[in-house]
Amino acid sequence: MIPFARIAAAILAFAAAPAAAQGDCPLNAFVGDPVLAAAREALLVPGKPVDFAAQPPELRARLQAAGKAAADQAKVDWANLCRYRAANAEALRAGARPRVVFIGASIVEFWQHGDPALFGPGVVNRGIAGQTSAQALLRFYADVVSLRPAAVHILVGTNDVAGNAGPVSDESYIDNIRAMIDVAQANRMRVVLGSIPPAKSFPWRPDLEPAERIRGLNARLKALADERRAEFVDYHAVLADPQGGLRADLANDGVHPNRLGYRAMRPLVERAIGRATSR
Question: What is the pTM of this model?
Answer without folding.
Answer: 0.91
